[in-house]
């Protein structure tokens, strides 16, 4: 039986170490394309190899997934075991994967001769946004990237009261809320991120903070920055150490210059 150039190359590759197979393939195709002006020969070899069982994918390794499932990644990428590794367009696979809201970044690499490696970086929610009774995930950059579905994780601070058209631009209400939640993630044991239940925006301005383990509201006012967070954390620390939480009706910030008003129950 007559052997084609592709059959000969497959035979040679099978005898070479895996480390230099890729270099050998590229050099062979390049030489075939320029040697003697035979550009068509290079294409002939490529098409033969792109249909060869030698480059048939036997393993697809997917790294970095936590929320997303393996079968979801394969469906999005339109790739499967048995495809030809040489003929895959990795850029198109990455573009298809990027259409999934939970994927922040995707890398697709070939490991010759028959393994495909997909590395996923998933988006991490910072909080939930409640608009019009619908919950969505928001990342630390203020990107509202996915709607909450049945069975999804809900243990995040909730931002509510914002109009549907609210944007996450610098200095905007959503941006301010994200900064406050970010500060809580850095620091105080008395006002940690996990203890923030809800940040509610009032129509007349200002935010109301509700804690997960305390019934009283905290009126944050219109200025939310690192210093105001630190002052509030110190007040909560004092209330905790002196066992005064049960006496508190509400807390109001911005009550005079750098002052915090703690109102007791009657």
From TrEMBL:
Broad class of where this protein is predominantly found: membrane
Entry's Gene Ontology BP terms: cell septum assembly
Record-linked PROSITE patterns: POTRA
PANTHER family: CELL DIVISION PROTEIN FTSQ
Transmembrane regions: 24-46
Any single Pfam family the record assigns to this protein: FtsQ_DivIB_C
Protein name from the UniProt record: POTRA domain-containing protein
Keyword vocabulary terms for this entry: Cell cycle, Cell division, Cell inner membrane, Cell membrane, Membrane, Transmembrane, Transmembrane helix
Boundaries of every POTRA domain copy: 55-123
Annotated Gene Ontology cellular component terms: membrane
Record localization: Membrane
